Amino acid sequence: RAKEKGRNDFQIFNSDMKSISINRIKLENELRKALTNDEFTLYYQPQVDIESGRIVGTEALIRWNHPERGLVPPNQFIPFAEETGLIVPIGEWVLRAACKQNKAWQEQGFPAMPISVNLSMRQFFQHNLKGKISYVLEQTGLAPQYLELEITESMTMDVDHAIQSLLELKDLGVNVSIDDFGTGYSSLYFLKKFPIDKLKIDRSFVRDIMTDPNDAAIVATIIAMTHHLNLKVIAEGVETEDQLRFLHQNRCNEVQGYWFSPPVDARQMEVMLVGGSQAAAAKLEQ
Ligand code: C2E
Ligand code: MG
Ligand code: MG
Ligand code: MG
Question: Where would I find the EAL domain in this sequence (predicted)?
Answer without folding.
Answer: 24-277
